[in-house]
Amino acid sequence: MSTAEEAHDPSGAARHLPTAWGGKRTPYLLSLPALMLFGAIVIVPLGMTVLLSFHDWGQYKGIEPVLILKNWREVLTRWWRARSAGRCCSVAIRDF
To answer: Model confidence over 19-47: pLDDT tens digits?
Structure first.
């Protein structure tokens, strides 16, 4: 039997040839290391920054383990900080 005859059944139904890694999960498994690296380099520091934004900080006392909204209130109520934050967000969204 030739290769063309092996790949196509005479009845008209195509025969599925086995693949080397065979499976629908293969692309996901192959991209897993890159996704883990992306998470470790981008997602974790971004999440930690958001969490730290809810803590109080002082020059002499350091980071205090309290959850407050003081930092966010300060950014949103002072016009020049709100404008700066808005500009940063718009650039980030536009360039994404």
So the answer is: 565 678 888 889 999 999 999 999 999 99
**Which sequence spans correspond to the domains of the chain?**
22-95
pTM exceeds 0.70, yes or no: no
Reduced to 3 states (helix: H, G, I; strand: E, B; else coil), residue 64 is: strand
Q: Please name the residues in contact with 48: beta carbons below 8 A apart, sequence gap of 6 or more.
A: none
Q: Which among 47, 50, 70, 46 is positioned nearest to 58, based on CA atoms?
A: 70
Question: Among 83, 36, 76, which residue's Cα sits nearest to residue 53?
Answer: 76
Q: Are the C-beta atoms of residues 9 and 15 closer than 8 Å to each other?
A: yes
Q: What percent of the chain has pLDDT over 70?
A: 76
